[in-house]
User: Fold this.
Amino acid sequence: MTDATDFLTATRAFYDTIAEDYADHFRDDLAHRPLERALLAAYADLVTGPGPVADLGCGPGRVTGRLAALGLDAYGLDLSESMLRVARRENPALRFEQGSMLDLDVPDGHLAGIVCWYSSIHTPVDRLPALFAGFHRALAPGAPLLLAFQAGEVPSRVANPFGHPVGLDFERRRPEDMEKLLEEAGFRMRSRTVRERDETLGEKTPQAFLIAVR
Assistant:
């Protein structure tokens, strides 16, 4: 089994190093993604219960901010303190916490929703059952999960991003495999959306978006 400490340490170090450059590069990313904006809006309509919505692996907080603008009580969680520093600076009215989505420090059934926006892509496949079981525990009955990731089977190694001497594996997943893992964790699937790659955005694979309900 993959050593969780090594995986978390590598992910934190990677994003701590590139946080400012990453935030600048992707600052207006959603402006060029109409389908993603529509999916986030549809997801927000599915959140019906009281309680917070957690943006897990929130990075610089752009999706957290979008969720808040859609009327949700959204907050962000991330491993990287450097990413959180950017998120707090750019979204001063929102709450951001440091922590691991593999170890959610919330009571059972506390969350009205979870968004995992391209943040499970660094989790080794043998850790996904535990990850999704943790999501299921933290969500209230009927609360929705939105999971976004690159579709595919071959991982991509990103090395020296923005000229920084760091590297990290970006996993690609088959949507049907992710659906099976979610169902095994107790979720009920609501929708599967797969968008073809957009080369103008620098994409190399299709993009997948799953919505499931606790």
In short: The chain has a mean pLDDT of 93. The radius of gyration is 16 Å. Strands lie at 53-56, 74-78, 95-98, 113-117, 144-150, 156-159, 167-170, 188-195, 207-213.
